[in-house]
Amino acid sequence: MLGIIGYSCFTSAYYLTFKMTVDFYLLRIEDVTYVIFGLDIFFNFFRIYKDKNGVEMRSHYDIAKNYLGGTLIIDLISTFPFYLLPNIQLNLKIIRLFRLARIVKIFD
Fold first, then answer.
1. CB 22 within 8 A of CB 15
2. Number of domains in the chain
């Protein structure tokens, strides 16, 4: 997942900076990243987390409540394939850069 986030952040910034068009093969790679990000959203509903007191939360209700109140909206927006919408000229893939916080959290 770390490699996919790094790839996505690099290509998002690169395409936005140089206003590059994406060819067929790069679109297929983008499709794979969308699928992996979608699986990440699915698996986040099963990831055990620790609350403020350090207690592990294992119930699905608590995990879902924590994820819904956290980064789910950013994850959904960054996973949506905006290139399929013909009228959107903005490159909203840059929202994926918000996932850099996960990389920093992993290395901390």
1. yes
2. 1
- Angle among Cα 70, 72, 76 to the nearest 5 degrees reads 155
Q: Cα–Cα distance between 60 and 105 in angstroms, integer?
A: 23
- The pLDDT value recorded for residue 108 is 61
Cα(28)–Cα(23) distance, integer angstroms: 9
Q: What is the pLDDT of residues 61-92, one digit of tens each?
A: 888 888 888 778 878 877 777 777 666 555 55
Contact 108, 11 (CB under 8 A): no
Which residue range forms the structural domain that includes residue 88?
2-107
Beta bridge partners of 49: 57
